[in-house]
Specification:
Order of helices and strands of chain B: EHEEEHEEEEHEEEEE
Distance between the termini of chain B: 36 Å
Shape of chain A: globular
Oligomer: heterodimer
CATH architecture of chain B: 4-Layer Sandwich
Helix content of chain B: under 10%
Strand content of chain A: 25-35%
Number of strands of chain A: 16
Shape of chain B: elongated
Structural class of chain A: mainly beta
CATH superfamily of chain B: Mitochondrial biogenesis AIM24
CATH class of chain B: Alpha Beta
Structural class of chain B: mainly beta
Chain lengths: ~325, ~240
């Protein structure tokens, strides 16, 4: 999607591009990103990734008049909204994609199908473009209210409106089939395109930051638009032989923050408020062709917590035979 | 119906009425959402062994074992594997309990029974009777064990959950299905059925991912946590 060039976010004077990013004045902490509370709504007129505002710790849990906690039933569970910061309730009427094992409870009549069954072929063809990691995903089908949760991590839902958002594979929990899921060119990430809602987990509340920004790799959850995610290295004191030794061995001290991800251009970057990574899930193989990053190999090390990943048989010259290995649990 | 308290903002309890009872009654309250504070005046509570984090006043800690009292309880414990090592805390003052920074949920029992996974029971008033109950087949398949702990009587119980518990009502015509790994407790008149969604396809790599479910039918409340402990059923 496209949108007009925006005024610099957060009322900053903008980063003078001709100077690069001089560390001493590039990111003035006093006016740059003031310490924020809770989930700041995205500013600067970028509508799509609106987190459903669930106030986090500062908003008290809704209480009944009598005191005590809320008792939910099928009618009082929120429809497509958070039950609390760690649980999300889907008002299911049709189909929904979710990661294996993230359903906690449900009311109503819901079936869970593995991806790859005949009746779902059309749906999968429409919305699921990363077929080789289909073993990690299921389709919930039916009517009812379904609660999703993931190891008590913070959950947020995001509405995309004709937009795109790329998210770390392990953080994506569920999505509406009106969105389509694709593997990102960047290994370990998945991209959602279209209009609809999806649910993502994060370790701690999610913060929205507008580029230009450099972020710690472990804190990155995803980004919307921003066509230029790239690596950035602080090499200023890594020069010369001693610097090389220092970088290779860590002797002499490295701060551990010499490497960042850099985002420029229009968009939003999603950060979690901790550097604890969620376990990655496999995003599947990509075709073994020249020019494709991570070609021929699983895009990342197999997950530890995600859904079970069955081994895939790859026969040289024949490929994986239409994924037969996975289908037969080989 | 049980009165349940959790989180920070609980409406004032009818303390006057409780104080009016003859025997001293331990007062359960939450200090934040992860620490249980119990005010005691010479009475006792039963708590998970080693869960005391601090206390004021005079306290005595005595190790007990769960699964019911006496010889019968001991045999039951041996048989069921529903092990719960508990301690009896008795004294005057305030005792604070917490376990691995899990959320604490207060449950008020007025004569009815609370069924809770032994791993999730933090503390009960000594007046409550704890025992072991057979849960049917679901436990065996889910890895939760065949037996859960049953807490009965009048008083407070504190239940732990990984993330704040969500309380779901089950009523006639509105059954609830729960992932075994997320189930922590239930009260009321509920029937548990083990539902298997596992079929041919599950074992051929195309499983629905939610093959094991517990179905609750009847009238009551079910507590689930926004997290799934690892079960044998696991991710099938």
């Amino acid at each position: 999607m496209s949108y007009p060039p925006q005024p610099p976010p957060y009322g900053q004077p903008g980063y003078p591009p001709q100077q690069g990013y001089p560390p001493q004045q590039g990111y003035p902490p006093q006016q740059g990103y003031p310490p924020q509370q809770g989930y700041p709504p995205p500013q600067g007129g970028y509508p799509p990734p609106q987190p459903q505002q669930y106030g986090g710790p500062q908003a008290p849990l809704p209480q009944t008049a009598v005191g005590g906690p809320v008792v939910h039933d099928a009618h009082t569970l929120p429809a497509n909204d958070n039950v609390n910061p760690y649980a999300f309730s889907v008002d299911l009427n049709g189909q929904y994609f979710l990661q294996k094992g993230k359903m906690v409870a449900y009311y109503g009549n819901i079936q869970f199908h593995g991806i790859g069954h005949g009746p779902l072929d059309q749906l999968v063809g429409r919305s699921f473009h990363s077929p080789l990691h289909a073993a990690d995903w299921v389709v919930a089908e039916g009517q009812g209210r379904m609660i999703l949760a993931d190891r008590a991590f913070d959950l947020n839902s995001y509405d995309l409106e004709d937009g795109n958002l790329t998210v770390r594979s392990g953080n994506l929990l569920a999505f509406d089939p009106s969105l389509s899921l694709k593997q990102s060119i960047i290994p370990g990430f998945l991209t959602l395109i279209g209009t609809g809602k999806f649910v993502a987990a994060s370790n701690g509340p999610v913060h929205f930051v507008e580029p230009p920004v450099r972020v710690d790799p472990q804190a990155l959850v995803g980004w919307a638009d921003c066509p230029s995610p790239c690596h950035h290295y602080d090499h200023s004191y890594m020069r010369g032989v001693l610097g090389g030794i220092r970088q290779l061995t860590g002797l002499g001290g490295v701060s551990g923050e010499e490497h960042q991800f850099e985002f420029i251009g229009a968009g939003q970057v999603l950060l979690q408020s901790s550097e604890k990574l969620m376990a990655e899930i496999n995003t599947g193989h990509v075709p073994n062709e020249a020019g494709i990053p991570g070609a021929g190999a699983p895009s990342h090390t197999p997950q530890q917590y995600g859904g079970q990943q069955l081994p895939n048989v790859n026969i040289p010259g024949l490929g994986n035979l239409g994924d037969l290995g996975r289908r037969f649990g080989l | 119906m049980s009165r349940i308290g959790t989180g920070a903002a609980r409406a004032p309890r009818p303390i006057g009425r409780m104080r009016a009872t003859l025997s001293p009654v331990a007062q359960f309250r939450l200090q934040g959402s992860k620490v249980l504070a119990v005010d005691m005046t010479g009475d006792a509570v039963k708590a998970r062994n080693g869960s005391m984090v601090a206390y004021t006043g005079q306290m005595n800690f005595k190790k007990l074992s769960g699964g019911g009292e006496g010889l019968r309880g001991m045999v039951a414990r041996r048989l069921t594997g529903e092990q719960m090592v508990v301690m009896e805390v008795k004294g005057q003052g305030t005792c604070y309990f917490a376990e691995r920074a899990t959320e604490v949920n207060l449950v008020r029992l007025n004569g009815e029974a609370l069924f809770v996974e032994a791993d999730n029971l933090l503390c009960t008033e000594a007046t409550l009777h704890t025992g072991t109950s057979f849960t049917g087949l679901h436990g065996a398949a889910s890895g939760n064990g065949l037996f859960t702990t049953k807490v009965e009587g009048h008083g407070w119980a504190a239940v732990m959950s990984d993330g704040p518990a969500i309380i779901l009502r089950v009523s006639q015509g509105m059954p609830l299905r729960v992932d075994p790994g997320a189930y922590i407790a239930h009260t009321g008149n509920l029937n548990r059925n083990f539902r298997s969604g596992a079929g041919f396809s599950t074992f051929f790599g195309e499983g629905g991912g939610e093959a094991m479910q517990i179905e609750f039918v009847g009238d009551g409340l079910v507590y689930v946590q926004p997290s799934e402990r690892v079960t044998v059923g696991g991710d099938v």
